[in-house]
Design goal:
single chain, 7 helices, 182 residues, alpha/beta
Length: 182
């Protein structure tokens, strides 16, 4: 914890005011989550730590994954995450997005999904995320990050996707591979 506190103090000394950090929720004791929430409270006058409850091993593909994710929100995580392309099946990936959107509405938190962080042109969970954000009217409260599969999409699909992304108003953060390929 001291190393983390020191790293954050360096960031604050250089003008950083907001830090979004992903905390793995696939620990049955949620040790890291509890420690980060404690640290957030300790440092709240210096920096805003936006803690993402992030199910690194998946939500439906990890025993009690959904329950641990929701418990993290009850403990005080500000953002809910997902990693749909890492779930066992495509169907689990779609369902994981549906579940986090329901929880985001229930707890009034932001959403940040590592969405299609894979070199597979068939990994298209970003369209499901954008559609749910549009349906739930969560404009600007949803982020699709690490969207590296997008660089493999064909033109027709990308055209359709960009229309949906614009309508949904979600934030999109491309992976470093996408930027490097340009």
């Amino acid at each position: 914890m001291n190393k983390l506190r020191k790293a954050i103090s360096w960031q604050v000394a250089n003008g950083i005011q907001y830090i979004r950090t992903y905390v793995d929720t696939t620990d049955k004791n949620l040790t890291a989550m509890k420690a980060m929430i404690e640290l957030r409270e300790e440092l709240k006058y210096y920096v805003m730590l936006q803690i993402v409850a992030f199910p690194q091993e998946g939500i439906l593909s990890y025993t009690n994954g959904l329950e641990l994710l929701e418990e993290s929100l009850r403990l005080g995580a500000y953002v809910i995450g997902a990693i749909p392309h890492f779930e066992f099946t495509r169907e689990y990936g779609v369902e994981s997005i549906n579940k986090i959107m329901e929880l985001a509405k229930k707890y009034g938190v932001l959403v940040d999904v590592h969405c299609d962080e894979i070199d597979d042109e068939q990994s298209r969970f970003i369209e499901g995320l954008a559609a749910r954000a549009y349906e739930y009217n969560m404009v600007h409260k949803v982020t699709a990050s690490h969207t590296t599969a997008m660089h493999s999409y064909n033109g027709a699909h990308t055209y359709k996707l960009f229309r949906l992304l614009k309508m949904s108003g979600i934030n999109v953060c491309f992976g470093h591979d996408d930027i490097m390929d340009q």
